[in-house]
Amino acid sequence: MLPVIIELFLIAAIHVRQRINDVEGGGLSYWSDGPDKPPARHSKAMANSALVGDIHSMFHQVEPVGPFDAGTQRVSLQAVLAPAGDDSGDWLVTDCGKEIYSAPLNEIRASVLWQADIYSSEEERKCVEHDTLSLRDIAQIFNEDLCERGADFQLDENLLHDPGTMGSLASVYPEAVPVGAGMSMFDV
Questions:
Q1: CB neighbours of residue 178 within 10 Å
Q2: Both ends of the chain: CA-CA distance in Å?
Q3: Are 40 and 61 contacting, i.e. CB atoms less than 8 angstroms apart?
Q4: Could you read off the pLDDT of 134-173 as tens digits, one per residue?
Q5: Which residues contact 9 (CB under 8 A, 6 or more apart)?
Q6: Buried (b) or exposed (e) across 59-85, using 16+ Cβ within 10 A?
Q7: Which end of the chain has fewer CB atoms at under 10 Å, N or C?
Q8: CA 114 and chain centroid, separation
Q9: What is the percent of the chain with per-residue pLDDT over 90, rounded to a whole number?
């Protein structure tokens, strides 16, 4: 059964390719048999490897990336990685204007997810290219469904990063917690 949010939008499968390099940690757990079964893991010999999957219907999680001697650095969705802007050659992670971490770029590993829309033909691509959703459209779809469910709030497209908004949505659209999942940035 697909999560309710997917059913609301009836989105087509979007396949993702994730290229992985060897580092300390940073494996990928994925629940291809559903959240109530243990995850499969891709964690050894990861250099120049890739995984393809439908991330909209399969739970997945990047495992913590080392080095682990300094503990885990947690950041919000507003965190930014950018050059330091001085002669050090360092890159800075800033979160809401506060410097969190600084290091040379070759000491930083970021997990990057590439997404691609997959079509069976050019004709299919052209048929759907103008069928897009704006944030306003998405808020309207959610608000109609929230009203039908008797929810006492409406989704405000300008407050999508507000923790209260996420909590309110989670109370109406609870999501399973996969067996064996580690902490998520959303758990902080």
A1: 20
A2: 28
A3: no
A4: 889 999 999 999 999 999 999 998 888 787 888 899 899 9
A5: 133, 138, 141
A6: bbbeeebeeeeeeeeebeeebeeeeee
A7: N
A8: 11
A9: 21
